[in-house]
Design a protein that fits this description.
Elements lengths: L2 H18 L6 E2 L4 E3 L8 E2 L4 E7 L4 E2 L4 E7 L4 E2 L4 E2 L39 E3 L4 E2 L4 E2 L4 E2 L4 E2 L4 E2 L7 E4 L4 E5 L3 H10 L6 H7 L6 H9 L2
Parallel strand pairs: 1-3, 2-4, 3-5, 4-6, 5-7, 6-8, 6-9, 7-10, 8-11, 9-12, 10-13, 11-14, 13-15
Antiparallel strand pairs: 15-16
């Protein structure tokens, strides 16, 4: 691709989305391309990332070289560098071929053998709030990551993950829960991520200790 065209494409994208989200403090870093996506406030998109058909909640960010598509992502999520989410699927046991030209009528292909799609290659990935996805992870289409999940670096997640679970590996497997079940239940009921900036600022000192945070909440 022509370097000048590449730069101008990014600049046009950056200006369009940052003006569209004026006042929300959206930051689109160098050569990050965004297509058909919605944002909350204080979102930050890393260099050379590609975001399409995506909805991001407040304070969620992604690092450099991410590719995130067909996703609904909650608030306060941290997405490490090189993460790939919803890259679309190919049929494995139903169709004779795994090549898209034989099951999808894709406009980016020079030739297709079908006029109508016979396989649904994209399913929305749903990611809750306060989720941390480590570097170079792959999240497969259709997966649901609940609130508070942590995905270890270099993992491939092909199944749903429960609230406040830590998973890792290829494919990703359950490692442990972040907190006690009673504390997890309290956090899910509280939903601190929806409390607003002022509430978080007033209670931020308790965020460094889950026990202090839970006790302080229960006393109210």
């Amino acid at each position: 691709m022509n370097p000048l065209y590449d730069y101008l494409r990014w600049l046009k994208c950056k200006m369009y989305y940052q003006l569209k989200n004026w006042g929300k403090h959206l930051r689109i870093n160098y050569k990050c391309i965004v297509i058909n996506s919605e944002f909350g406030k204080y979102n930050w998109l890393g260099n050379y990332s590609y975001i399409y058909n995506c909805k991001m909640g407040d304070f969620t960010y992604c690092n450099d070289y991410c590719m995130i598509g067909d996703s609904v992502i909650g608030k306060f999520c941290s997405i490490g560098p090189g993460v790939k989410i919803a890259l679309r699927k190919h049929p494995t046991t139903t169709h004779i071929s795994t090549h898209p030209s034989t099951f999808n009528n894709q406009p980016n292909f020079v030739k297709n053998f079908v006029s109508q799609n016979t396989f649904k290659s994209n399913e929305t990935v749903t990611i809750g709030n306060d989720v941390w996805i480590g570097a170079n992870c792959l999240i497969v289409d259709g997966v649901v990551l609940a609130d508070g999940v942590i995905v270890a670096a270099n993992s491939v997640v092909n199944k749903n993950v429960g609230p406040y679970e830590i998973v890792g590996g290829t494919p990703a497997k359950f490692i442990k829960k972040r907190f006690k079940d009673t504390d997890i239940e309290t956090l899910l009921n509280l939903q601190w991520w929806d409390k607003g900036d002022e509430w978080i600022q007033q209670n931020i000192k308790q965020f460094s200790s889950v026990d202090e945070f839970i006790n302080n909440y229960k006393q109210r």
